[in-house]
Specification:
The complex is a heterodimer of chains A (210) and B (127). By secondary structure, chain A is mainly α. Chain A has 9 helices and no strands. Chain A has one domain: Serine Threonine Protein Phosphatase 5, Tetratricopeptide repeat. In chain A, helix 1 packs across helix 9. With 127 residues, chain B is an alpha/beta fold. Chain B has a single domain, classed as 3-Layer(aba) Sandwich (Rossmann fold). Chain B is 48% helix and 16% strand. Chain B has a 4-stranded parallel sheet, sandwiched between helices. Classes of the chains: A mainly alpha (210), B alpha/beta (127). Chains A and B meet through helix 4, helix 5 and helix 6 of A and helix 3 of B. Chain B: Homodimer. The dihydroxyacetone kinase complex is composed of a homodimer of DhaM, a homodimer of DhaK and the subunit DhaL.
Chain lengths: 210, 127
């Protein structure tokens, strides 16, 4: 997976977030402050602009630039969280120009570690970690089994989507929804839903570039 | 003197708490508000936080107070990404912590004492 793959990933995220903007905002209106869709739409729009203005030379450079842009431009909690996730991914890739599935797996692991260090959330807290952690495990398993890249990315997307849906009955223990206590149960977590979108876009980027 | 930065989702909330603290504790202490996003929405701007630290840093250290959510995450991200050896995050109530920190800084305390004063503010009862 080269730089153009990761640029395609960012473009696919921007497209998916734009299409799902109102859905994400509705999820956030139920248990948060109803800005998740618009914040992410603005953020990934800025990422798209940044990548066009200063085209990166490496996969790692692509993700570091995307992460820095999200940190500066989003304004809500998703900015530092996704920003840190992409920056940690990018840093773990170093200067490598062609990322293997195993390297992608290590990068996603670094993203999860960065998010958990910053937000101190664990699985079951009803956050983005509930979608990200199963996706990280699915990719590690696919690498161990020697899966084909398209199958591995499909497994990542499926695990993230399942993880997001599994947040519905949970009571939030982190983030704005945690102020609602038991009233947060019965709604899908918007951060987990957007993480599932972002990781599903990885598979779409694969189909587009391979 | 130790500088103080107030980080809030709301530009007005941060500015008004800064004003209240200065009115009670004196106007000599460097204090800056970093509230809202760059384009005037509710939220947090890492650029505003970074600029506010520069404004109040006199070389004796800076204590940051945050309201909640993205204010906390943005402040932590800033310090994770670029180490500021004399800058500390206070796990403190926003209003009471700001006043305690400002009064303590005004008395000439060092940065650790100002940080402690902000954090201890949570234990001061009201009733």
């Amino acid at each position: 997976m080269d730089t153009s793959f990761f640029v395609a990933w960012m473009e696919e995220i921007a497209t998916a977030v734009q299409a799902q903007r109102d859905h994400l905002t509705q999820l956030d209106a139920a248990i948060g402050d109803a800005d998740h869709g618009s914040n992410l739409d603005r953020g990934f729009g800025e990422v798209r602009r940044a990548l066009t203005d200063s085209p990166p030379r490496t996969p790692g450079g692509t993700l570091v630039l995307a992460g820095s842009t999200l940190i500066r431009k989003v304004g809500g909690a998703s900015g530092p969280l996704y920003g840190t996730a992409f920056r940690q991914m990018g840093k773990s890739m170093g200067e490598t120009r062609d990322i293997s599935l195993a390297e992608l797996s290590a990068a996603l692991d670094a993203a999860l570690a960065g998010v958990q260090k910053l937000g101190a959330a664990v699985e079951g807290d009803k956050t983005m970690v509930d979608a990200l952690a199963p996706a990280v495990r699915a990719l590690a398993q696919a690498v161990r089994e020697g899966a084909k890249p398209e199958d591995a990315l499909s497994a990542v997307a499926a695990a993230a989507q399942e993880g997001a849906k599994a947040t519905i009955p949970l009571q939030a223990r982190k983030g704005r929804a945690s102020y609602l206590g038991s009233r947060s149960a019965g709604h899908e977590d918007p951060g987990a839903a957007s993480t599932a979108l972002i990781l599903s876009a990885l598979r779409t980027a694969g189909f587009r570039t391979w | 003197m130790v500088g103080i930065v107030l980080i809030s989702h709301s530009a007005r909330l941060a500015a008004e708490v800064a004003e209240l603290a200065a009115q009670i504790g004196g106007r000599d202490v460097p204090i800056a508000a970093a509230g809202g996003t760059d384009d005037g929405r509710l939220g947090t701007s890492i650029t505003k936080v970074s600029d506010a630290i520069t404004t109040v840093d006199q070389g004796d250290g800076v204590v940051l107070l945050m309201d909640l959510g993205s204010a906390v995450l943005t402040a932590r991200t800033l310090l994770d990404e670029s180490p500021h050896p004399r800058v500390f995050l206070a796990d403190a109530p926003f209003v009471e912590g700001a006043i305690s920190a400002l009064v303590t800084s005004g008395a000439g305390a060092d940065v650790k004492a100002v940080l402690d004063a902000a954090e201890e503010a949570r234990h001061i009862g009201k009733l």
